[in-house]
Design brief:
Elements (H helix, E strand, L loop, with lengths): L1 E9 L5 H5 L6 H7 L2 E10 L2 E7 L5 H6 L2 E10 L1 E3 L11 H8 L4 H6 L4 H10 L2 H16 L3 E7 L6 H15 L5 E9 L10 H19 L4 E6 L6 H13 L3 E6 L7 H8 L3 E4 L5 H10 L2 E4 L1 H7 L8 H7 L3 E3 L13 H11 L4 H7 L2 H6 L16 E4 L16 E6 L2 E4 L1
Parallel strand pairs: 1-4, 5-6, 6-7, 7-8, 8-9, 9-10, 10-11, 11-12
Antiparallel strand pairs: 1-2, 2-3, 4-13, 13-14, 14-15
Helix pairs in contact: 2-16, 7-8, 9-10, 10-11, 11-12
The chain binds N-(iminomethyl)-L-glutamic acid (NIG) and fe (iii) ion (FE).
The site of N-(iminomethyl)-L-glutamic acid has 13 residues, from α6.
């Protein structure tokens, strides 16, 4: 084993109930919600964290044995990018230019472009090629401090091509120093060949894709894009319930372009998260809070689509008692970025999150969106995923954007980047 000694150690306590009772709303509250320990110490044993606390209270055993000490300024749980579409082929810079010339995202999609253009490229690509691209991308995330990267399918839209994408995620896993979490998004768009018979596509997702994905162990999560131009609330509910019957955790792309009732579906079926939420209703927010659904917010989308005039109501979600997670939504159509550090900054400027709220949202909040208890917090027994940063204060991570500040990234106890 070895020890990490940090001037500021952020433990990110998981218990949200504890959070509400803390502090004055300012720096003191922030220190509480990130679980700040000044001059903190993490004892790593194998793949796990063995002990966490103050340096001067470290266990007698590690003092006696003289184990190696890695010193850093700020240490926190490895970052979790809990919503990406990182397994894709091709690119869509042409559409980016079209949008900037005035054509909305949803019109491009409804005319058979958008997602469906990436579907063409993914159907053409080999599983090997998809895996290789994903490996390259995962390394870029790791260098920022990411140790868990969620990756959705949804650009295949046939049983074979969806499974090809999810298998590419599993294949890439062998060659990357972070965890890749596969998520099945067969209901991302209605493919062109089903345009006139969308019910038949929903049928295919439920009767063929979900059972095969579940049986093969290709993904533990089932997601649906519920919106204008994609799937209705009724269709989404049917698909998510079907996924749940096959043991998958439900997640949903909700209320991104219109208030299509996605947040209500999330609450109704007991989804782990509802993601996007630019047009969520107050009723939807309250239902989410009641059902413990995490709100996953992805401000890069608004920046990239030029829609910063209509942002997800982050503060209302927090005030209602929802846990919030920030993510990149990395995809070639609506958020061509892997830069989670910039997302932290946008969380603060656009959503008015505090630095502590933003940093919680990519660790403890994101872990909750994935229903995971072994990651996202630094505590005894958790997986030893730790990101270490050379910055003057933890809040600096939300402020100096556009470059990595990681000086070491530890995944399962191993230094994978330093
Ligand atoms: O999360 N909203 C739906 N899906 C993606 C966009 C995918 C694409 O345009 O390729 C999203 O924004
Ligand atoms: Fe998405």
């Amino acid at each position: 084993g070895y020890i990490i000694r940090a001037q500021q150690l952020l433990t990110m306590p998981q218990d949200a109930a504890e959070l509400a009772s803390y502090g004055d709303g300012g720096e003191e509250r922030d220190n509480s919600i990130v679980g700040l320990i000044e001059d903190g110490c993490v004892v790593v044993d194998g793949e796990k964290i063995a002990w966490v606390g103050r340096w001067d209270e470290r266990p007698a055993k590690v003092r006696r044995d003289g184990v190696d000490v890695f010193e850093t300024a700020v240490a926190m749980p490895g970052w979790i990018d809990c919503h990406t579409h990182a397994v894709f082929a091709g690119e869509r810079s042409r559409e980016f230019a079209w949008r900037n010339a005035g054509k909305p995202y949803v019109e491009i999609l409804e005319e058979g472009g958008g997602i469906l253009n990436t579907v063409d490229a993914v159907r053409e690509a080999s599983g090997q090629a998809l895996a290789e691209e994903l490996i390259r991308r995962a390394f870029l995330s790791v260098r920022q401090g990411v140790t868990t990267l969620e990756v959705k399918s949804g650009y295949g839209l046939t049983t074979a091509d969806e499974i090809k994408s999810l298998k590419a995620v599993q294949r890439a896993q062998k060659d990357v120093p972070c965890e890749l979490v596969g998520c099945f998004l067969g209901a991302h768009a209605v493919p062109r060949e089903y345009r006139e018979r969308r019910e038949a596509y929903v049928e295919l997702v439920c009767e063929e894709m979900i059972p095969q994905v579940a049986r093969g162990g290709y993904a533990a999560y089932c997601d649906v894009f519920c919106d204008r131009g994609a799937f209705s609330a009724e269709e989404a509910e049917r698909i998510l319930r079907c996924g749940q019957e096959h043991g998958m955790v439900a997640r949903i792309h909700a209320d991104e372009i219109t208030d299509a009732g996605g947040a209500l579906v999330a609450a109704k079926v007991g989804a782990s998260s509802a993601d996007h939420l630019e047009f969520v209703s107050q009723e939807g927010i309250e239902a989410m809070a009641e059902a413990g659904v995490v709100g996953v917010l992805m401000p890069a989308v608004n920046l990239f689509l030029g829609t910063i005039d209509h942002l997800a109501p982050a503060r209302s979600l927090l005030d209602a008692g929802c846990e919030v997670a920030l993510a990149t939504d990395f995809n070639p159509g609506s958020a061509m970025t892997q830069d989670l550090g910039t997302i932290l900054m946008l969380g603060c400027t656009l959503y008015k999150l505090t630095p502590g709220e933003a940093l919680r949202s990519i660790t403890a909040g994101a872990a909750k969106a994935l229903r995971r208890e072994d990651i996202g917090s630094i505590r005894a027994g958790a997986r030893a995923d730790v990101a270490c940063f050379d910055v003057p204060h933890y809040r600096y991570l939300t402020y100096h954007f556009g470059q990595t500040h990681a000086e070491a990234v530890i995944y399962r106890g191993n230094f994978v980047y330093w």
